[in-house]
Specification:
The structure is a single chain. The relative contact order is 0.16. The protein contains eleven helices and 17 strands. It is globular, with a radius of gyration of 20 Å. The chain has two domains: 116 residues, NAD(P)-binding Rossmann-like Domain (Rossmann fold), CATH 3.40.50; 218 residues, Dihydrodipicolinate Reductase, domain 2 (2-Layer Sandwich), CATH 3.30.360. Helix 1 packs across helix 10 and helix 8 packs across helix 11. The strands form three sheets. A nine-stranded mixed beta sheet has the order 16-15-14-13-7-12-11-8-17. Strands 3-2-1-4-5-6 form a six-stranded parallel beta sheet, sandwiched between helices. It has a two-stranded antiparallel ribbon with strand order 9-10. By secondary structure, it is an alpha/beta fold. The site of nicotinamide-adenine-dinucleotide (NAD) has 24 residues, from helix 1.
């Protein structure tokens, strides 16, 4: 059997998760790794044959089917563009790019070249979420009237916490909104089929200065930096956003990377005229359905009945499939001939780039901003 030949660019937090997930598929060989720093050492530790510090050299020298781009946001565009120009299918981390313009260029290039293009909004691929989408499509909760929720983390709570994400030159216009808000908004639009039509946002940057470690800082590290320099912070720690949806529903979300005790807590509540649905990363194998006139229900993953939800389950209930597993499910779908595909594409990535930009504009102008669909 011929296996797909794949390379991963960026072997930090999420790059390593990509490599692990790819290796679980069986039909993919991770033949090369590219990282700006210590690429040879990283490749050796991950048992990858070829290592590069320059992605162009890697693309020029190795015959690749797919490339996974897992580097800071400001580098996504150049790497993805070069890969697409060289006829390589691209799996790109979110947020898609640094600017909307870049996302537009990549989306049309991938379309022209007819190449596979994916954005890793993986929350869609939890089987419970596929099932929720199917329930909503089947009108089981009625007309949607409101959507609310949160995405809370605490790894940037102290002023000694630092990441490239805090620097708008690497992150983009927004930080918390693009980093975790894009996951929430993509998930809500995917589950409901609704489109966000307008946004009103309030931002807060709690620390105007942070202590940036002088050495390498790992994403999600909570170790205090002893050797640091003070740097100005120009990205938001917290964002509160109001939404108007295209069917008339209203909504809101709280996004924060400074909420103590919340490690990675995404919550969505969708209220319809017949029932409401609650899903959260803290209880990701259960769908909670609320009723006014009969007892509430919980659907655990082994009672999911829609076929495309079942295909995203590889272990029985009681054997929790979490973050590494859902990333595997995204890649399983991409690298297979599955007829129904739930994963996000560049078109979806571009849409989130536009929404993030409008949220930024709203926070700056202190007013509602429309989003054309
Ligand atoms: N889908 C998700 O849930 C998820 C989770 C975490 C991160 N991400 C996204 O993944 C990307 C990477 O985030 P991370 O947390 O893994 O960051 P990270 O800092 O842990 O890792 C980034 C890696 O890229 C390398 N790198 C930087 N510039 C490079 C270049 N020009 N060429 C090659 N390598 C380069 C760095 O040396 C580092 O090893 C970001 O876009 C982030 O938003 C997505």
């Amino acid at each position: 059997m011929n296996k797909f030949k794949t390379a991963v660019v960026g072997a930090g937090f999420i790059g390593v998760a990509h490599i692990e997930a790819l290796r679980r598929l069986g039909n993919v060989d991770v033949v090369a790794l590219c990282d700006k720093y210590n690429s040879e050492k990283k490749a050796k530790e991950l048992y990858i044959e070829h290592s590069y510090s320059n992605y162009k050299k890697m693309i020029d020298e190795i015959d690749l089917d797919f490339i996974h781009i897992c580097t800071p946001n400001n580098t996504h565009f150049d790497i993805a563009k070069y890969a697409l120009e060289n006829n390589i299918n691209v799996i790109l981390e979110k947020p898609m790019t640094f600017t909307v313009k870049e996302a537009e260029i990549l989306t049309s290039l991938a379309k022209d070249k007819q190449l596979i293009n994916v954005i890793n909004f993986h929350n869609r691929l939890y089987p419970t979420n596929i099932h929720i989408k199917n329930m909503i499509e089947a009108n089981e909760i009625g007309d949607i009237i409101s959507i609310n929720g949160a995405y809370l983390q605490d790894w940037l709570l102290f002023d000694t916490d630092y990441s490239w994400r805090l620097n708008s030159n690497e992150s983009g216009l927004t930080r918390t909104v693009a980093d975790i808000g894009s996951h929430w908004m993509d998930l809500v639009e995917y589950l409901t089929g609704l489109k966000i039509k307008a946004v009103f946002a309030e931002f807060k940057t709690h620390y105007k200065k942070r202590k940036k470690a002088l050495g390498e800082t790992k994403s999600f590290s909570t170790q205090a930096n002893t050797d640091f320099k003070e740097v100005e912070i120009n990205t938001e720690d917290i964002a509160l956003i109001l939404f108007r949806f295209d069917n008339g529903a209203i909504g809101n979300v709280t996004l924060s990377q400074m909420s103590a005790g919340n490690k990675n807590n995404l919550v969505v509540n969708i209220s319809g005229t017949k029932a409401s649905i609650n899903w959260s990363l803290a209880d990701l194998e259960n769908i909670k359905i609320g009723f006014r006139d009969k007892p509430n229900e919980i659907i655990p993953k082994d009672f999911l009945i829609t076929n495309d939800a079942i295909t995203a389950i590889d272990f029985p209930s009681g054997h929790t499939e979490g973050f590494p597993d859902v990333i595997k499910q995204v890649f399983k779908e991409v690298y297979s001939k599955a007829k129904i595909k739930h994963h996000a594409t560049f078109k979806d990535g571009l849409r989130q780039m536009i929404i993030c930009e409008k949220i930024y504009e709203s926070a700056k102008k202190n007013k509602w901003i429309e989003i054309s669909n």
